[in-house]
């Protein structure tokens, strides 16, 4: 768990992070969004003390980060930046091994960990371990960057625009990979992004910053239903609100009894995806299938539209 308490950063007379307080629960993903220059990266970098706070404090699992030596702190906390930041003259394996080597792991343990991570990120060790960063695609470099950050099994991962340089298709895949790996390892993540779509997709809670201040910190549903100020409402995207609400709910939430014609929709699909299928196929309802493929009911357009309405 990360507890950020009254954290402030000033450069001269300019306050770039102003009295921010927020808590990230263990195993959760907190996403920080906001305008350019709002102080997002500075807030993130105060967590691992790459930037020293002017005042306030950060507790990690109850321990004040000022009481942890900086080296030890950075070994405990994975850090991923945009454009991956890989060392160009080290191989993929060498890059991933960076922190384990600093921690003095033996060669066998390091090699095992490198293999394990490459497999986790669907990069065949035989093919990729010996390659250099310039021999990889952008998406592969980004995966190696995340693998490197996870190498010493940090309980906490900080990510600054990690997918900013990726094209939309690879980006979406990278987000899904991250979610799958995060759920599996239980890593606590704080991620900075410009992209609201990414924030809604990844964030258990979303922190909205503007002009150095934290305007709101809540779940996606809270931000949509009760945006704190006009700025949050605009950022959430007024025209997008119904669709974002539908993205947050699954077909299970609007499952109806009875038959319907057509290709079944998975019960785990989002209502947004179900609506898209209904529009595309020109139907008012489609059958719904469970994980095993058995039809368990139907999803109708009326039920979906009700769930895209402004929450009361
Ligand atoms: N070392 C520094 N010295 C002086 N000012 C700084 C320093 N680092 C950051 N700033 C200023 O602090 C403000 C916040 O910067 P920060 O990088 O945290 O914003 P951000 O929200 O992450 O922006 P972006 O989305 O554009 O990356 C900016 O106005 C920036 O110019």
TrEMBL record:
PROSITE patterns from the UniProt entry: ABC_TRANSPORTER_1, ABC_TRANSPORTER_2
Any GO BP: quaternary ammonium group transport
The UniProt record lists the keyword ATP-binding: yes
Signal peptide: none
The keyword Transferase is assigned to this record: no
Sequence ranges assigned to domain ABC transporter in this UniProt record: 2-236
Domain of life: Bacteria
Molecular-function GO terms, alphabetical: ATP binding; ATP hydrolysis activity
Protein keywords: ATP-binding, Nucleotide-binding, Transport
Pfam (any one): ABC_tran
SUPFAM superfamilies referenced in this protein's UniProt entry, alphabetically: P-loop containing nucleoside triphosphate hydrolases (SSF52540)
InterPro entries: AAA+_ATPase (IPR003593), ABC_transporter-like_ATP-bd (IPR003439), ABC_transporter-like_CS (IPR017871), P-loop_NTPase (IPR027417)
PANTHER family: OSMOPROTECTANT IMPORT ATP-BINDING PROTEIN OSMV
Family listed: Belongs to the ABC transporter superfamily.
Record-given protein name: ATP-binding cassette domain-containing protein
Organism: Microvirga thermotolerans
């Amino acid at each position: 768990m990360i507890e950020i308490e009254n954290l402030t950063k000033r450069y001269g007379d300019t306050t770039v992070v102003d009295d921010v307080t927020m808590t990230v629960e263990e195993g959760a993903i907190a996403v920080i969004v906001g305008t350019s220059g709002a102080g997002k990266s500075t807030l993130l970098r105060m967590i691992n003390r790459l930037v020293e706070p002017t005042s306030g404090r950060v507790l990690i699992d109850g321990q004040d980060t000022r009481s942890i030596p900086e080296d030890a702190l950075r070994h405990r906390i994975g850090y991923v930046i945009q454009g991956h930041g890989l060392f160009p003259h080290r191989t993929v394996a060498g890059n991933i091994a960076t922190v384990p080597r600093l921690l003095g792991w033996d060669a066998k343990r390091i090699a095992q960990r490198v293999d394990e991570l490459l497999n986790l990120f669907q990069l065949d060790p035989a093919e990729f371990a010996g390659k250099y960063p310039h021999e990889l695609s952008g998406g592969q470099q980004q995966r190696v960057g995340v693998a490197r950050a996870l190498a010493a099994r940090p309980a906490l991962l900080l990510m600054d625009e990690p997918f900013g340089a990726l094209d939309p298709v690879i980006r979406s895949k990278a987000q899904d990979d991250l979610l799958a790996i995060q759920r599996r390892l239980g890593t606590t993540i704080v991620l900075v992004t410009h992209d609201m779509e990414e924030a809604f997709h990844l964030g258990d809670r979303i922190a909205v910053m503007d002009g150095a201040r934290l305007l709101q910190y809540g779940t996606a549903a809270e931000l949509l239903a009760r945006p704190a100020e006009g700025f949050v409402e605009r950022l959430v995207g007024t025209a997008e609100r119904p669709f974002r609400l539908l993205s947050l709910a699954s077909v299970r939430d609007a499952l109806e009894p009875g038959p319907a014609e057509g290709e079944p929709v998975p019960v785990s699909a989002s209502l947004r995806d179900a609506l898209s299928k209904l529009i595309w196929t020109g139907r008012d309802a489609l059958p719904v299938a469970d994980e095993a493929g058995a039809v368990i009911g139907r999803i109708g357009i009326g039920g979906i539209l009700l769930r895209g309405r402004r929450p009361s």
